[in-house]
């Protein structure tokens, strides 16, 4: 690197906050390069974000700037373009590959900006493209990718095969919650302490909201998620040492009184760039090899990070900008106001009320409420998948464009027709009843399809199968369920009921 290049400022986006984004040994800028951060108000004006999410991102950015001290110039501007102009004029800048199509197109349009390779993932874009192109099919499967990543990165391997002889221990990780228990009885997750920077952020958000400059949804309680590298490492350490052992068996279970169960709560730290995925999976594997956690728990966590998270990131880029427009099922219904406002009192369904309340107060739920309650509801009601994607992006502290487009369009809403999953992920109330304690105190009965006691998920499931029977009966994983329609003596009554359902 020339002396001139060593003096080129490097721009850090608000989700590139960890040390691996400024490490020259890992593709980062020169160690003497000045750094630039831009807090652009326009980002908060584009969407009605969850208040806790806005707080977390601004807190993380400002904490990082405080850590970097005189090396960084922190610019508060109306837009990124304005911030760049104020900071460097027409001067050159480097930046790591941004995490959204829009941001990437923007930086590529600026002749003064040189884009460095993406950081924060195990697999490069070129490596994934080679792997995907070699499939010879338009359908990509996470399980195939996951096994390839395990082998190439030597994760939970014994020689050339998987530890324990099986790649996937999903079968061991689908236990319902312990009967009669209101919680798992595991140590609580790590909770950070707020600082003066958080007070400043909250004051700014209050003022902008009062002035009508930005608008939020949800509540901004004391910050629950890490905003610094030190906090993120503390969260990782607490998870692997005190919570990982019980993660696997109950990772698909839900309890009304234990919203975090044994989950890591590290997704926001990973997506802000405070943690690197390699250090997360390596620590989990080390705990298994030391005999402190069972293999199914270590494998379940590794699969979430090195399998699903990695797969979603690359699918987002590989399928391109038009992927978000996918709507194979032709769902166009708008999201109801009570849902967008996170109004948990607007529904009589106990599971949905609990989950919406958690999103409203925290901006987070674990993956099963997201997929099998919120996403399943949206799919059954035929809501527009693009609007559903936007809702998840705005409403979750770990929600980013690259995260939510594949997760919602591809998995949750099956809007891509099966390009990344083999079947729609939805169910009737029986699944929720088996995997949670929500149904016992609910006004609806999971076994009832029609009438005042009819579970909206049970009735909605059959309604969805009927609506798309022609498509689903040709799906090997759906044909048995679809044939069940022929055994419903009250199908006409059910369909009429669902046409008028409000909650």
From TrEMBL:
PANTHER family: SLR1343 PROTEIN. Residues 161-204 are annotated as: Disordered. It comes from Streptomyces glycanivorans. It comes from the Bacteria. InterPro entries: Crypto/Photolyase_FAD-like_sf, PhrB-like, Rossmann-like_a/b/a_fold, UV-DNA_repair_photolyase. This is Cryptochrome/photolyase family protein. The lineage of its organism: Bacteria, Bacillati, Actinomycetota, Actinomycetes, Kitasatosporales. Residues 191-204 have a biased composition (Basic and acidic residues).
